[in-house]
């Protein structure tokens, strides 16, 4: 066990995983809200995938109408607390703030949104919306993540009967199981689940569609079905030693950390994370905060090509993470456990089909790095065995094909949204997909020949 990092004290864990963006006080929220210029063209609103009326919700905070502010936000985004805390606001709403043009600090839209939604949940979720009269139509939602919950909430308000099927014991999808706890928490995600339930949705947990309940049974029960299962199949490195004890998938590792049972999560003294997306950054920062002595990120391209956002990269650097750019793993070495990773240096050649410069191995540049743990973060894919059970469902490039407006698939009774149709974007994109799909489902069901 000497390859496992020593456990920290409860106080150290709490300090390491404390929120990186603390909430506003009432006074600080009022001050920040009054900085807003309430732009007539609202570039921040246009930059938000859910198109929250940002100027309006901020103005309501400034005038003391926090309940009205929360309603304005929820009218556009049912996953508003998670988005307020975990959205990449620097490249979305706050990145579009006109203060940036003056080289001044942009309005802290995310924290203001959190202030309003915290108030809403803290005051017992006062009723803000009235569902339409019952339509007699029933919709099944496969997956209780941000896309599924958003779709369910909107369908409930449209008067439909909604049942969400989620394989986990706690629903919420990526919001519950896949976001670092110093950004947002499982408790935050559960509040959003309860909000959707308060609108009338039934949520069935520990229910795996395809085994616990079949697709045929869903089709007999519901008039339409929404698929919001995300990407559940981790990509492989396809190198020697990948299946050694001590090699982990990033999302599975992060899921253990989100439970906040930090002493139960073993982490190596020397950890290597392979990949350079935002999930990889979460994995390296969490490893460091769990007590790993040395944490390295290995990426086959340069810093300029890394998919992670700049602020995520800066966070990892501030935590003391080492970066091995232009480095690609060749094999993982060990006798019954991970002991080292053999890598090769890379150079960048001509751009590939996506415009990114192709990495090329440098002959004779192989070297080894002693490690106790390897975390893979090289992408996720759809679970093809699940989608193959849905008749006449079109898949292209590993994504479910949908109509761009209605989100209807090639099988007219099935609609889809979230990561399974976009290859893996932000939570806010999934929330937007789910809401738009709800309108597509509603319009389709109201046609006399359907449902």
Question: Could you estimate the helical fraction of the residues in percent?
Answer: 25-40%
Mean pLDDT score = 96
Number of helices: 17
The major pleated sheet works out as:
5 strands, parallel
| Low-pLDDT stretches | none
Q: CATH architecture of the largest domain, please? A: 3-Layer(bba) Sandwich
Q: How many E strands?
A: 18
Give the CATH superfamily of the largest domain.
FAD/NAD(P)-binding domain
CATH class of the largest domain: Alpha Beta
Write the CATH fold name of the largest domain.
FAD/NAD(P)-binding domain
Overview of this protein structure:
There is one protein chain. With 451 residues, the protein is an alpha/beta fold. The protein has 3 domains: 104 residues, Alpha-helical ferredoxin (Fumarate Reductase Iron-sulfur Protein, Chain B, domain 2, Orthogonal Bundle), CATH 1.10.1060.10; 159 residues, FAD/NAD(P)-binding domain; 146 residues, FAD/NAD(P)-binding domain (3-Layer(bba) Sandwich). It is 34% helix and 17% strand. The protein is built from 17 helices and 18 strands. The strands form 5 sheets. It has a 5-stranded parallel β-sheet, sandwiched between helices. A 5-stranded parallel β-sheet has the order 6-14-7-8-9. Strands 10, 11, 12 and 13 form a 4-stranded antiparallel β-sheet that branches. α5 packs across α7, α6 runs antiparallel to α7 and α8 runs parallel beside α17. The radius of gyration is 23 Å and the shape is globular. The N and C termini lie far apart (59 Å). The mean pLDDT is 96.
